[in-house]
Amino acid sequence: MGALNFTDEFEKMPSEPNNHITLVLGGARSGKSKKAESLVMALPPPWIYVATAQAFDDEMRERLEAHKERRDDRWATVEEPLDLAQAVRDNCEDDGALLVDCLTLWLSNVMLAGRSVEWESDALLAAIKEARGTLVIVSNEVGLGIVPDNKLAREFRDAQGLLNQRVAEIADNVILMAAGLPLTLK
């Protein structure tokens, strides 16, 4: 029986992708976007912000501008309201950090566009699993309130809850934000 050579065995092991995924959950105005931005900014640039929101009215345009004003010129912004899986594939690289803000608006866009939630969610999860570099994802925790009074709202709440569970399952870290305070879940 020969001596075990750990160096040879180590070199035969498949290399793991450089995949670091953090999910930041919270309710409206919980501080989830600011927390996610701070996580990314703790890393060296380049930083890419994937914005999923669409501005359909003046109030939403103001909200989007406030988000943009928090970010300086070290951030690149990719606006992608629907094809989020492709945006993750195209922009999450070994040497950078990608922030997706947010899954909730993206899922709303998918549903309102009449796309298959299941197919789009599966494609997004596959892209997240393949992503290289650091990926920080923001999403709303929508299951803490009352049961919505209409079918579309209930379907959205259920789909968002399932999507959050699926992302949390593959994430390395999950943070729940409440009143600006982080609670580490994973």
Main features:
7 strands, CobU/CobP, nucleotide-binding, ATP-binding, alpha/beta, seven-stranded mixed β-sheet, transferase, disordered N terminus, 7 helices, about 190 residues, about 45% helix, EC 2.7.1.156
Summarize the topology.
Blueprint: H1 6-12, E1 19-26, H2 32-41, E2 47-51, H3 58-70, E3 75-79, H4 84-91, E4 97-101, H5 103-112, H6 117-130, E5 133-140, H7 151-170, E6 173-178, E7 181-184
Parallel strand pairs: 1-5, 1-6, 2-3, 2-4, 4-5
Antiparallel strand pairs: 6-7
Helix pairs in contact: 4-6, 5-7, 6-7
Summarize the structure.
With 186 residues, the protein is α/β, with parallel strands linked by helices.
- Percent strand equals 15-25%
Major beta sheet summary: 7 strands, mixed
Name the poorly predicted regions: 1-18
Number of helices: 7
Task: Characterise the protein shown here.
With 186 residues, this protein is α/β, with parallel strands linked by helices. Helix content is 44%, strand content 22%. It has seven helices and seven strands, in the order H-E-H-E-H-E-H-E-H-H-E-H-E-E. It has helices at residues 6-12, 32-41, 58-70, 84-91, 103-112, 117-130, 151-170, and strands at residues 19-26, 47-51, 75-79, 97-101, 133-140, 173-178, 181-184. The protein has a seven-stranded mixed beta sheet with strand order 3-2-4-5-1-6-7, with helices on both faces. A hairpin with a 2-residue loop joins strand 6 (173-178) and strand 7 (181-184). The termini are far apart. Residues 1-18 have low confidence and may be disordered.
